[in-house]
Amino acid sequence: MSYSKPLTISVVLMGLSFSFLSNIGFTQSTERPDLEGIWTNASRTTLTRPRGIEGLVASPQVAEQIVTNMAIAGISAENIAAGPSIDPETGAPPAGSYDFGLRGYNLFWTDPGSSLALVRGEFRTSYVVDPPNGQIPRLDTPKVELQRPNYGSRYLTGVGGNEGPEALPIPERCLIGFGNTAGPGMMGTLYNSSYQFIQTDDYVMILVEMVHDARIIPVFDSAEKARAKRRPAVLNQWLGDSVGWYEDGVLIVETININPQQMGQSSVPISSNGKVTEKFSRFAENEILYTFTVDDSNLYSQPWTAELSYYPLDGRIYEYACHEGNYSMPGILAGARRLEAEQASR
């Protein structure tokens, strides 16, 4: 791996200074990219382009305006600006309201990023770059049906199914992280959008801070050898069956056979015949360029591609000890059975 001195560019946005290195003067090895280290992809950019916003790239001024008007965790920009309720007599919001627990405890625990995604020196209005309109090209009539429970409403209101353990969302059960942080199609979320990349001769391991997911990807000499070493399809693993190889300084990871339960709650769903192809490369000394392409003719009218970047993160990743599923689920289900018994006895 060899680097020449890149050009440093600084941008000031929302009172914060961002410095990034352009690829001018940056030399990438034709061998495998050096991905080692701790990185973050936190940003306020969404997978698809919001309504009313034109174009993939935004100027720093427009990017600041977009972020200022964005909601966080279902809380509107107006309520964020208003701050939390400090009246101790206010009490909890009514069941089913969209107040998200008195405005999310003042949002102190969220860390979604302070700007739109900065990718190759450009502020992006969507992760989707193809199609150019920034939208996912879903089929009007999918050829297969994925069970897509409306967990967004449950998240915002606290009202949802409780007929059994399976009715609770997978992240709520602490099985895997939420928001597609671990992928395939790895994107930041409300907080803990941190990753550690470790490379050996035979594997790439990606440790995801959210729910301490870990992707252990075997790496082969070629795409042909990688595909020949796939696991049995019947396994249906969380995060799928991923295999990788290097081409011209790029790590390519191809994933199939993702667990159907995960797909029902994923923002990047594919059917049993679909695949997700991820590419990791070093755009600059302090930037990993990451793209993923989703190819599934059962759900989409064409393959579609998203693009984002990872930047170095100072410090270390701490254990995300998800415990809600261990402690909350018995109480939730026991409470639901008690209510049912009381209603039946009336």
A few lines on this structure:
With 346 residues, this protein is an alpha+beta fold.
Give structural notes:
- By secondary structure, the protein is α+β, with helices and mostly antiparallel strands.
- The chain has one domain.
- It has seven helices and 15 strands.
- The model is unreliable at 1-28 (pLDDT under 50).
The biggest beta sheet is recorded as: 9 strands, mixed, barrel
What is the topology, as strand order, of the major beta sheet? 3-8-9-10-11-12-13-14-15
Mass-distribution shape: globular
Low confidence ranges: 1-28
| Cα-atom radius of gyration | 21 Å
Give the topology:
Layout: E1 8-13, E2 16-21, E3 37-40, E4 57-58, H1 60-68, H2 77-82, H3 100-105, E5 117-119, E6 122-124, E7 128-130, H4 151-157, E8 194-199, E9 203-208, E10 214-220, H5 223-228, E11 241-247, E12 250-256, H6 260-263, E13 275-284, E14 287-295, E15 304-312, H7 324-345
Parallel strand pairs: 10-11
Antiparallel strand pairs: 1-2, 3-8, 3-15, 4-6, 5-6, 7-15, 8-9, 9-10, 11-12, 12-13, 13-14, 14-15
